[in-house]
């Protein structure tokens, strides 16, 4: 079974193209995290929110990443970090073309 991690937080920016340029090295490093399958970066410049949706191989990998990532965000001055971990219902998700295999 795979696990989905949802993280979001308030952030003043950068967003859009500036975000893409500023965080390219961070994005590359996330690929090396244990159990990480993929990440979708999320942003809402109007609401000043950002975050991501991640797929992990195990709940333990998702939990460890959330702890590490929360500490990293806190070191950047970001507070009010929200993280949730969900089990993925693979049978139903595959019906809806989820990239989980």
UniProtKB/TrEMBL annotation:
Q: Name one GO molecular function term.
A: monooxygenase activity
InterPro entries, per database record: Dimeric_a/b-barrel, YdhR
Q: Name one Pfam family in it.
A: ydhR
**Keyword set, alphabetical order:** Monooxygenase, Oxidoreductase
Q: Which SUPFAM superfamilies match?
A: Dimeric alpha+beta barrel (SSF54909)
The keyword Oxidoreductase is assigned to this record: yes
Task: Enumerate the Gene3D superfamilies for this protein.
Answer: 3.30.70.100
Q: Which NCBIfam families match?
A: PRK11118.1
This chain belongs to which protein, by name?
Answer: Monooxygenase
């Amino acid at each position: 079974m795979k696990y989905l991690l949802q993280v979001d937080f308030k952030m003043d920016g950068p967003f859009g193209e500036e975000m893409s340029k500023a965080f390219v090295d961070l994005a590359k490093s996330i690929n090396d995290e244990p159990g990480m399958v993929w990440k979708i970066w999320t942003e809402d410049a109007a609401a000043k929110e950002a975050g991501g949706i991640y797929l992990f191989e195990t709940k333990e990998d998702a939990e460890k990443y959330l702890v590490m990532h929360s500490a990293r965000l806190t070191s950047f001055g970001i507070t009010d970090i929200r993280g949730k971990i969900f089990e993925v219902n693979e049978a139903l998700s595959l019906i809806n073309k989820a990239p989980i295999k």
